[in-house]
Amino acid sequence: MVVGAPAGPWVRVLVTGAGGQLGRELVGAFAGHDLVAATRHELDVADRDAVFAALVETKPDAVIHAAGWTDVDGCEADADRAWRVNSLATRHVVRAARLVGATVCYISTDYVFSGEVDEDAPRPYTEWDRTGPRSMYGRSKLGGELEVGVEDLVVRTSWICGRHGRNFVKTMLRLGVERDQIAVVDDQHGCPTFADDLATAVYRLVTGRLSGVFHVTNQVPTTWYQLAKDALGAAGLDPGKVRPVATADLDPPRPAPRPAWSVLDNAALRLSGLPLLPDHRESLERLVKELGNQ
Questions:
Q1: CA-to-CA distance for 117 and 121, rounded, in angstroms?
Q2: So what's the pLDDT on residue 180?
Q3: 145 in Cβ contact with 99 (< 8 Å)
Q4: Which of 99, 220, 243 is nearest to 159 (CA)?
Q5: Which residues contact 240 (CB under 8 A, 6 or more apart)?
Q6: How far is CA 152 from each of CA 118, 188, 190, 250, rounded to the nearest angstrom?
Q7: Fewer CB within 10 Å, N- or C-terminus of the chain?
Q8: At what angle do helices 168-178 and 224-234 cross, to 10 degrees?
């Protein structure tokens, strides 16, 4: 567990899941502030005693709960683990936060919605739309949302890509070199979100002491197919290698259902006068360039 040097009396933040794709960017976003960064190996959020001990020891003003089990198909196969890590663990974090007077920022997902497409008038989901998850992952993340209080913050996001860990963009760039053809679904719509952009937005929300549900994604919806083509094009590879395929035709089929429509309207950000994240294509170009320079 890494504890940063205090930068003043402003706020002390504990980040769970600090070694993950988003967690590492959150650590960077809060650099210079009084920060406690706890990786999965350092703090098992499903262990109630460990969570309470960590918060009592560090006494944060805010907890950014980025830890969770994001393996969608794994959650479908092991519901108990999904409930334990994504739902019950959030209960532990929230209860421990109440004990020390901290607020919680819980990182959630587009999978809390059904993802069904209204062919006549598809529209993005707002923060006030009815949830209705179809997968075990979505149900367990919604379970975590139900544990937070009105004074806490829920940040729903989607399709996270970034410099750290495994993600779709990295996979496409690797396959773009290794293969002559890449089959990618073209009937799932959403908004890619780049981890460093998301971390910056979380920083604004937490330091601004906002509460409630916020959708935070990069702007302009796309499909996985188009995102793959754009990633290869940005890397100077042949986008023509990417072949569209319907989700129903995937071989083998995925165990967990994927939302066909998971476009999130960042309405709460926009109506609050807060900055929206950039067009995802701008951030994609930047990420591909950074990955190429590594």
A1: 9
A2: 94
A3: no
A4: 220
A5: none
A6: 32, 31, 26, 39
A7: C
A8: 60
Q: Is 203 a catalytic residue?
A: no
Q: Answer left, alpha or beta for residue 115, where phi above 0 means left and psi between -120 and 50 means alpha.
A: left
154, 106 in Cβ contact below 8 A? Answer: yes
Question: pLDDT by residue (tens digit) across 144-192?
Answer: 999 999 999 999 999 999 999 999 999 999 999 999 999 999 999 999 9
Task: Note if the pTM is more than 0.85.
Answer: yes
Tell which wins on pLDDT, 5 or 115: 115
Helices 21-29 and 195-207, packing angle to 10 deg: 50
Mean pLDDT calculated for residue range 264-282: 98
pLDDT over 80 at 118, yes or no: no
User: What gap in Å lies between CA 80 and CA 155, rounded to an integer?
Assistant: 24
CA distance 157 to 215: 6
Read off the pLDDT of residues 9-67 as tens digits, 9 standing for 90 and up. 457 999 999 999 999 999 999 988 899 999 999 999 999 999 999 999 999 999 999 99
Helix (H, G, I), strand (E, B) or coil at 38: strand
pLDDT digits (tens, 9 = 90+) for 191-238: 999 999 999 999 999 999 999 999 999 999 999 999 999 999 999 999
Give the count of alpha carbons within 13 A of 64, CB side only.
37
- Residue range 2-166+193-219+263-278 in CATH 3.40.50.300: no
Q: Are 162 and 199 in contact (CB under 8 A)?
A: no
